[in-house]
Write a structure and sequence with these properties.
7-stranded mixed β-sheet; elongated; single chain; 27% strand; 8 helices; alpha/beta; 6-stranded antiparallel β-sheet
Length: 311
């Protein structure tokens, strides 16, 4: 028999896991997600989360409680009589009473190789820190911040070409498959848990927009990883000076390049920029208030010659 599951998730990252659990025959008795937020062109229309949109198409009941810490919320959650809860980027802390409600517990899919990068922004932080690999882990949840016992894991190499959205999409698909396997093992009674090590614990703090300005004095590879770790949002940025008008530019994708010069100096007419050591070449960017574009298209409209500068 399939498991009776409550699914708890909010962003795009969560959707593949929900769909895979349904495809493998599990009964999703309810979906918990965050409440709709104002959006649309004028910011007036309430926009449901990606998980809510997927759940509605599946015909699954959707709940958007503001808190899980009331007796009413606990009673409602418990009434679903779930075997387990699957949590993927839900965005709300689960109190102990909720964690204890499903017969077999609550299981979280986390986008890092725990105990490295516990917390809110593990994908961005892994790239920005220059990590060689990332991954996904299924853990049985406790009341700590990503401190639960780990059941299963998959690893994935991080290359210098990967942006945060690239890694996000690959981990989302990898995680969906991992959670399906974890729930199959849970159903068989064969899901084995292992306590997390206390060695190598790091925390992935939420990205602050104040971090987004590029420091050209750093080595080229650090600049590249900073750019890619913040792409596409919030986007690493710099001011381009020495052209017809100063322009704030988000750099969304780049590559390592040959060359040297003063930090931020444009070295040629192909947007090769000097760093503290080495250089990068911009491949994709976005001017303030404009659509993202390839660097070659940008240069056709805004010629940038050697000697200009990014600050």
């Amino acid at each position: 028999m399939p498991l009776r599951l409550i699914f708890m998730g909010t962003p795009d990252f969560s959707v593949p896991t929900l769909l895979e659990l349904v495809a493998h025959g599990h009964e999703i008795v309810a979906v918990y997600t965050r409440a709709p937020k104002p959006g649309g062109r004028r910011g007036l229309q309430l926009q449901p989360t990606p998980v809510e949109e997927a759940a509605r198409k599946l015909g699954v009941p959707v709940l958007t409680p503001k808190t899980l810490r009331t007796q009413e919320a606990l009673d409602e959650f418990s009434a679903f009589d779930a075997d387990a809860a699957v949590v993927v980027a839900y965005g709300m802390i689960l109190p102990q009473a909720i964690l204890d409600a499903p017969k077999l517990g609550c299981y979280n899919l986390h986008a890092s190789l725990l105990p490295r990068w516990r917390g809110a922004a593990p994908i961005n932080r892994a790239i920005m820190a220059g990590d060689a690999e990332s991954g996904v882990m299924v853990m049985k949840m406790d009341v700590g911040l990503d401190t639960g016992d780990v059941a299963m894991a998959e690893r994935l190499a991080i290359t210098d070409t990967m942006t945060a959205v690239d890694l996000h999409d690959r981990l989302s698909r990898l995680g969906a498959d991992l959670m399906v396997r974890a729930m199959a093992a849970l159903h068989r009674g064969g899901l084995q848990l292992k306590k997390q090590s206390e060695d190598g614990v790091t925390y992935a703090a939420k990205i602050d927009k104040a971090e987004a300005r590029i420091d050209w004095s750093k080595p080229a590879r650090e600049v590249l990883r900073h750019v890619h770790g913040l792409s596409p949002f919030p986007g690493a940025w710099a001011e381009l000076v020495g052209v017809s008008e100063n322009a704030r530019v988000k750099i969304l994708r780049c590559e390592l390049a040959k060359g040297s010069g003063g930090p931020g100096e444009v070295l040629d007419d192909q947007l090769t920029i000097a760093c503290g050591e080495g250089a990068i070449r911009i491949l994709e960017l976005q001017r303030e208030g404009k659509a993202r574009m390839q660097a070659t298209d940008f240069l056709r409209g805004v010629p940038v010659k050697a000697g200009a500068k990014f600050t």
